[in-house]
Amino acid sequence: MKYQSITRGKSSKPVLSLLTLAIAGCIPVSAIADDQKPEVITVLGHADERDGQWYPGSHQHTNMADIERSLDTNLGQLLKSSFVSVSVNDVQNNPFQMDLQYRGFTLSPLLGLPQGMSVYVNGVRFNEPFGDTVNWDLIPLTALREVSLYSGSNPVFGQNTLGGALVLDVKDGFSFQDNVLDVRGGSHGMWQGTVESGGNSGELGYYAVVSRYEEDGWRDFSPTEVTQFLTNLTWKGDEGNRWDLLAAASRSDLIGNGAVPFDLMALEGRSAVYTHPDQTENDHWFASLAGDIQLASNLSLDLNLYYRDSETNTLNGDDSDFEECEVDGEETLCDEDDEPVEFVDRYGKELDVDLDEMGLEADDLDGLNNTSQTKQKSGGVSAQLVLDLERGSFPSQWVFGAGASWADIDFRSNTEFAELMNEEVGSPRSTSGVGLYDEDSIVRLDSNRTQYYGFIAGSLALRDNLQLTTAARYDFTNIEMIDLAPGEDGTTLDGDHDFNHLSPSVGLTWQFMEQTSLNASWAQSSRAPTPVELSCADPDAPCKLPNGFVSDPPLEQVVTDTWELGIDHQTGTLQAGLTLFYAMNRDDIIFQQAGGLPSEGYFDNVGDTLRQGVETYLSKQWQDWHLSVSYSYLDATFQSPYISFSPNNPLGGNRQVEKGDRIPGLPEHSAKASLEWYWEDLLLGTDLLYQSGQYYRGDEANENEQLDGFTLVDLRASYRINEWVAVYARVDNLFDTDYETFGAYGESDEVLEGVYPGFDDARFVGPGAPRTFAAGVKVSF
């Protein structure tokens, strides 16, 4: 079921989440009255099915069978279509680069967004240390045994758990015992081939998967290639002892050509791009060793050790802010402050440049190639003790944990002058570099991030039907930044920042009827500014993400308090629930637009922001039919007045934002429905998604029109021919609806004025994908 409580496979400890009993929320799994034994979730263990297990935090879950029935190709698509209160801003129009919002908090692979969720894979913190981003292309969707989404600012999930935590549990040789070949193809040159195998000898188990995905993309000049590999080796001993060795690697070449001026789509079609290329190449791998050790009948130890290594290279072809000028009688380029450019080569060596001798005209250098390389090496160790106390009138369970992590980040970027190929109507507006670079735009940043934490969490059964949960966590984070850029600006980014915070939580769950429970809770968590935010925080010197960082003023850490009140009802065929939530961010960090492109600006503390609302769901089974529906209302507003820079706002820059103005980019209403029909070996399903309008980024004062809402309908079908062979197909956006998931203001006239005279559309949008088809065959052998 798409909106259901956890069902567990029989393995060892509870799932990677550390004490969701300390979460604020509303979906318990079952009553505790059978044996009065409260149950805690640990961040280092694995799923377990135990009598009397329950969770007072709001929790959504999907398992292997649900994932297979969805026919989705990636994790982001699954979350978008199946989870309550999740919406999507598909800025890049690449299936592996979408940014998700959950209750108004963002989880994205793109720098420049205020990340507010934590991600774990088999106990390993999965957010990238440079910007707390997440790369959807590293873990194959096929490899996931369970996907769980926990709500609230639960401190035990660690820093940056402002809105929730996404927990991914990988298959092993005990949960998956088969050999499967899955091949699919579809619209826009898409094809995907996946081979997975798993099995066990009773004590030793293995699981391995290899996947390859390719597509031409429905936008112009937007091919994508992703290769993924994952293996999980498991040893299970007596009395619940277990060790897991997980390794994964991926290599991807992602083209996401970003937002496009709204009126340009009418002139060149919805597949048009503004400028290109916009390329991201990822090379990732990581390994983890997790152990569950039963020290006594009521005492267990969970251990986790991990190491990650990643390299990301980007190439962004953009418009140029440099203008033609004359210095000492020679034609050259000047920056926005009318200072002449110091030309260098890609390594920062100064060049004596005469544009005439090179056969170049300054006026023709109207484009830029912004390139970056980010190398991140990180690792960590965690340990926690789980103690069950069943004596006396109040059985309890306690978790004591501690951990440390480190990250070494090497970031470098260059800005190369280029010619923008936009002379003819319908031309691709690509950039062609000329081998000359801007000295002031060179960034060479070495950053080290170290974190230590400790926590205690407990669950106490006050009565047969009443449970108290509480937790407290202390975090200390140090971020050291060393500027290695050549020239006089080589110390601009230097900094040494310490952040620390003690975060508590408390919750009550009351099983006041046999199948109905009520719960209430409060939780707090914090987010330390990331190196990318600290490197781009000067309003007088905005940067171009993810390329140019320019100064290092201090930023305050964000602290979030979340209150939740929920009621949940469950029977054998019916599940329904209602949750009220209220999350207040203090010293919230946002990305202020400050240039001609939506990705140009700086990070800033803007005071308090509020995300409050209500969500409800219902899931019902009737013999061969299954229905799931959900609705969520989100009121996301600024709570502190401030001046929004907004240079491309149609009403002019420096707009006054007042308390109560809605946060752009977040829909107020969203609804989802799924209907499935089973007949012997045939499954037919349809999914409906509604998302209301949103304000454009750059309109924080809510003074202009909103982006329109939209409704989408998808179809899917699968048929098992025999024991070994199954076929399937799906259609997304059945009615070929034109819609946009994202909007921001930018400056387009300088690029397009020579092609479309008088063109001056400040609205940049992320167009949604048209109708697409996919079909495949799955063979077990």
TrEMBL record:
Family: Belongs to the TonB-dependent receptor family.
PROSITE patterns per the UniProt record, alphabetical: PROKAR_LIPOPROTEIN, TONB_DEPENDENT_REC_3
InterPro entries found in the cross-reference section: Beta-barrel_TonB (IPR000531), Beta-barrel_TonB_sf (IPR036942), Plug_dom (IPR012910), Plug_dom_sf (IPR037066), TonB-dep_rcpt-like (IPR039426)
Membrane topology, record value: Multi-pass membrane protein
Name of the protein this chain belongs to: TonB-dependent receptor
The organism of origin for this protein: Shewanella corallii
Domain TonB-dependent receptor plug: 56-165
Subcellular location: Cell outer membrane
Domain named TonB-dependent receptor-like beta-barrel: residues: 265-734
Pfam families, per database record: Plug (PF07715), TonB_dep_Rec_b-barrel (PF00593)
Signal peptide: 1-33
Keywords, sorted A to Z: Cell outer membrane, Membrane, Receptor, Signal, TonB box, Transmembrane, Transmembrane beta strand, Transport
Main localization of the protein described in the UniProt heading: membrane
